[in-house]
Amino acid sequence: NSQIKEYTLQNYDQNTNCDKILKKCQIRIKLNQKFNQPVYIFYEISNFSQQNRVFMKSRSDLQLQGEYVSDSKLRKQCSPAITNKDLGKTEQYFFEGQNLNQEDIAYPCGLIAKYFFNDNYQIYDLQNKNKQISIQKTDIVWPSDLEHKYKINKKELDKYWYDTLDENFIEWMKPSSFSSFRKIWGKINQDLNQGEYDILIDDFWNTQFFKGHKSLLLSTKDIFGGKNIFLQYAFIVVGFIQILLSLVLFVKIMRTDKNFIQISGDK
């Protein structure tokens, strides 16, 4: 874990290099050390609770699996974000390129889908003639998710506002246990050498309505995953508690055995 390198672009939604009207950011960063491939890109959200009961229940797993679900069931399962109008989707169909009917059931529907994180990142290497770095956005979720949990209903292609097989979408749909969390966004399959880089951000995702912030992280991984100081301390605390309980249990057993021997001797 000590070999893992991380760089954090903290609270970029407050960065002065972001144009709030155009929703574009161009931010220059400097890496003080080399990041060996693969380099993983994460976004981090603060003060946003995905564990809210209403938020978690507002979805249809059968719809996400590509199964037929009646409109009445979808209205019940996805409430209060049911129709395209509820989700604020006014763009064209993702697959068919026609205008969305605002009163139709949204595909996908639900609050989690409504607040899907849709910022986009591009990275340019200033040491290499400002060349754009390729970012892979596949193979970042569990294969079982793609095989079993997320499918497209081909009979309803004209209703989808987004591709539910998109791996960024699948990652977002997994509720986090904490109000501050990070999720993987992509992977860079080349080394990032020490030096300066420009990051271009499509700053679409609104943090103002929940008074939170969003950050961008670059991280390397080892066989145990990314850097996670919380888990290290958690393991230490749990280990200490287990040792303490073992000592208490040992003392209790010793006292019980001693009393049993004393009683047996008296007899």
TrEMBL record:
It is found in: Membrane. Keywords: Hydrolase, Membrane, Transmembrane, Transmembrane helix. One of its GO terms (cellular component) is endoplasmic reticulum. It comes from the Eukaryota. One of its GO terms (molecular function) is exodeoxyribonuclease V activity. Its main location: membrane. The keyword Secreted does not apply. The chain crosses the membrane at residues 230-251. It is a multi-pass membrane protein. Its EC number is 3.1.11.5. PANTHER family: CDC50, ISOFORM A, CELL CYCLE CONTROL PROTEIN 50. Belongs to the CDC50/LEM3 family. This is Ligand-effect modulator 3 LEM3 family protein, putative. It comes from Ichthyophthirius multifiliis.
